[in-house]
Automatic annotation (TrEMBL):
Function in brief: DNA repair enzyme that has both DNA N-glycosylase activity and AP-lyase activity. The DNA N-glycosylase activity releases various damaged pyrimidines from DNA by cleaving the N-glycosidic bond, leaving an AP (apurinic/apyrimidinic) site. The AP-lyase activity cleaves the phosphodiester bond 3' to the AP site by a beta-elimination, leaving a 3'-terminal unsaturated sugar and a product with a terminal 5'-phosphate.
Protein name in UniProt: Endonuclease III
Co-factor binding comment: Binds 1 [4Fe-4S] cluster.
Reactions this protein catalyses: 2'-deoxyribonucleotide-(2'-deoxyribose 5'-phosphate)-2'-deoxyribonucleotide-DNA = a 3'-end 2'-deoxyribonucleotide-(2,3-dehydro-2,3-deoxyribose 5'-phosphate)-DNA + a 5'-end 5'-phospho-2'-deoxyribonucleoside-DNA + H(+)
GO biological process, one term: base-excision repair, AP site formation
């Protein structure tokens, strides 16, 4: 069971440090652009996607333009985001289905969104949260890793993590949790070199405390070997 007081302290500190606004890190002007940008962000950084999308959305300026394009041109435009053939295939199929089944509009429904090619719950929740203000928890690599580190969940499957967190984190905090955890993962709790000793959440973070303890043990062992 999660210690509710510990969780409240963590959420309050996240609010204090990172604010209560839920910020979208993918540049976009409308719902279909965000849908496509989020698809491109799979196995790719937001910064890279933001470098690609200005020219991409200028060349293909509508759902219909993507649906009717020569797929080789889409592949060329998104090449640097990685897995470009599969992404181009899914994006075009997604746009074609938007036209034939949804009148060219992005549906405001989790089941309808996840029925689109290349759209999982993460992508669907990004669109629902950032475009329609519908409470959702987005499980990306930062949320998965740091939620486990904080002891908020023991699951590794993103869908199980999503529902686990939904049952523990107050609904009013769902949208900003992802934004805050991304910021935390980029500044202090980085994957390769977490700055646990500088982290304002350290005393309430089981993973961070274990990380520091492991470093101390390792360093003491190294020092003894040198002697």
């Amino acid at each position: 069971m999660i210690d509710k007081k510990r969780m409240e302290r963590i959420l309050d500190q996240l609010d204090e440090v990172y604010g209560k606004e839920h910020v979208c890190y993918l540049n976009n002007e409308n719902d279909w652009q965000l849908l496509i940008a989020t698809q491109l962000s799979a196995q790719c950084t937001d910064d890279r996607v933001n470098m690609v999308t200005p020219a991409l959305f200028e060349e293909f300026d509508s759902v219909q333009a993507f649906a009717e394009a020569d797929i080789r041109n889409i592949e060329k435009a998104i090449h640097s985001t990685g897995f470009y053939r599969n992404k181009a295939k899914n994006i075009q199929a997604c746009c074609q289905l938007l036209l034939t089944k949804h009148g060219g509009k992005v549906p405001v429904d989790i089941d309808a969104l996840t029925a689109l090619p290349g759209v999982g719950r993460k992508t669907a929740n990004v669109v629902l949260g950032h475009k329609y203000n519908i409470p959702a928890i987005v499980v990306d690599t930062h949320v998965k890793r740091i939620s486990n580190k904080l002891g908020f969940t023991e699951f590794t499957d993103p869908v199980k993590i999503e529902f686990d967190l939904m049952g523990k984190i107050p609904k009013e905090h769902w949208l900003r949790y992802n934004t805050q955890i991304i910021a935390h993962g980029r500044t202090l709790c980085t994957a390769r070199s977490p700055k646990c000793e500088q982290c304002f959440l350290l005393k309430d973070c089981p993973g961070g405390l274990y990380e520091l303890y492991s470093r101390i043990v390792k360093n003491e062992g190294w020092a003894k070997e040198k002697e």
